[in-house]
Amino acid sequence: MTFTSQTTVPAPAPAADQTDRPLLVAESLVVVRGGHRLLDGVTLTLAPGELVAVVGASGAGKSTLLAALAGLTRLASGSVALVRADGSPNRSPYGAVGLVPQDDILHPDLPLGRTLRHAAGLRLAGGRDVERAAVAEVLRVLDLTDRAGVPVASLSGGQRKRASIAVELLARPSLCLLDEPTSGLDPATARSLVATLRDLADHGAGIAFTTHALNDLEACDRVVVLAPGGRLVYDGAPGLAATRLGVDSLTDLYDRLTDRLTDRLTDPATVSPDRSAAASVIRAEGTRPPRRPPARGTARDAGRQRPSGLRQLVVLTHRAADIVLRNRLTLGILLGSPVAVIAMFVVLFQPGALDPGGHPSGAVMEAYWLAFAGFFFGLTYGLLQVCTEVPILRREHQSGVRDVAYLASKVALLAPLLIVLDTVMLVVLRVLDRLPALDLHTWVSMSLTMGINAVVALFLGLLASASVSSVAQAALALPMLCFPAVLFSGAMVPVPVMTSTGAAMAAAMPDRWAFEAIARHLGVGRLVAADSPYADLGHASYGFYWTVLAATGVVLAASALLMLRRRAR
């Protein structure tokens, strides 16, 4: 195997007694994106007990390197593998490597302790006692015990960084990668955080982190220097870096990281014997892994497994409810918007609008707006669920959270709420004489129709939310999703007078079938003239309407899941 030439200096030996922990071996990594090489033949190792800093100019590929080591970036060539100290492949790669991104990817409204308990439930198998013990341990290790009851948004910058690290440490990874953990911190807080990383390494974890701050290197065993183009020009002890790189001090490093310097340092003639020896060690350990990144997942010791999908569903649903209940504005909108719509219905429709002899157009409109209300509630409830959590979704997908559990948790929380709200709306309208007296079977059937329609719209909202990148885009998508539902429902323009293309589009609108079913429930067809284009409203059976709505929901749910998986990667 050919290794890229580079300058390497022996680093201090890792902490002892790490034979049961895997070694991360990366060989000749090449990452190409958009025709540009982001990494160019990088070869290195990360052992338990080591603290390694990755430095380089902006755009040199530091974050790309961490993503490649974590198995989150497609490699054009090269390989990443986990092996044990005796050279045997690690049989439990699931979760051996934890990755802490640069951004603080935590729900800001939740207290830190609850955030960690939810994270433990998603990452750890073994029950609540195991989860509580893991949370208590990481809080103690990272000196956050007294901040457990504080909302994440109220933590200081350094505390939020440590909180992000705590999430990954819950599952006790052997190796942990951190992207710019000291970015944005004052010097004292940055020193404290690096000291924490040093302590974690001294207790057996392999730690690698990217940084621009040269002061961060003092506590490190090794420094890895990347030059523009993602070429590795130095891998060794920090104290010898300046000499080997031909600079007076490390403060001059960034000025000298030019393409010309890179070419000189990667010339085969400048390769030190130490680098050749390191290559021999890698070969001797038999690390010719499959040319694919290690399996994605959370970090765990060898005997651990990730929780079941059902357990993840329960935790995610509990967390989603926790977030809603702690955000008064969100809770107010969720509960207040149906109240406002009901009030508008009461003002809009006169009592007895659906009684025999009532105006036919009023009956048609009331049936339609009932259907649209359920559709609108479901759509708006789903529209902000994913786009506001994409960074968290990606991190949890990488840590082994199942996409289907994430999607199902949104439905498990919101679908019952939608059904209750639709039922309350029908009851209030009946009490205020905006709906006629109906038998129990008809009331139950109409509630079921509105509930199914709301859940179908919820799936549409989740699909749209997973398809956009921001809340602003979701807001722009709302009218584009509502407008076709209004135009092609068959209420504003009856289906029989539509063009053939319009009728085909109407057939794909769930709101059209909910409108026709509700018109059947309310007997709208009896109120219109026999030659009216609305005369055939509700001619099909309830079973037909429910089947069409359910089939539409299945298609939208599957599409939402596929889009969710795409966004999570």
Any idea of the CATH class of the largest domain? Alpha Beta
- Alpha plus pi helix count: 19
CATH fold descriptor of the largest domain: Rossmann fold
CATH superfamily placement of the largest domain? P-loop containing nucleotide triphosphate hydrolases
CATH architecture of the largest domain: 3-Layer(aba) Sandwich
Instruction: Give the spatial strand order of the biggest sheet.
Output: 1-10-9-4-8-7-6
Mean pLDDT: 83
Distance between the termini: 30 Å
Given as residue ranges, the uncertain stretches (5+ residues, pLDDT < 50) are 1-19, 267-303
Number of strands: 10
Number of domains: 3
Instruction: Kindly estimate the percentage of residues that lie in beta strands according to DSSP.
Output: 5-15%
- Rounded Rg: 30 Å
Provide the helix percentage.
40-55%
Describe the secondary structure blueprint for this structure.
Blueprint: E1 7-8, E2 23-33, E3 36-46, E4 51-56, H1 62-69, E5 77-83, E6 97-100, H2 112-123, H3 128-141, H4 157-169, E7 175-178, H5 187-202, E8 206-210, E9 222-227, E10 231-236, H6 241-245, H7 253-256, H8 259-265, H9 273-284, H10 309-326, H11 328-348, H12 360-383, H13 390-398, H14 403-431, H15 440-467, H16 471-487, H17 500-507, H18 510-522, H19 542-568
Parallel strand pairs: 1-10, 4-8, 4-9, 6-7, 7-8
Antiparallel strand pairs: 2-3, 2-5, 9-10
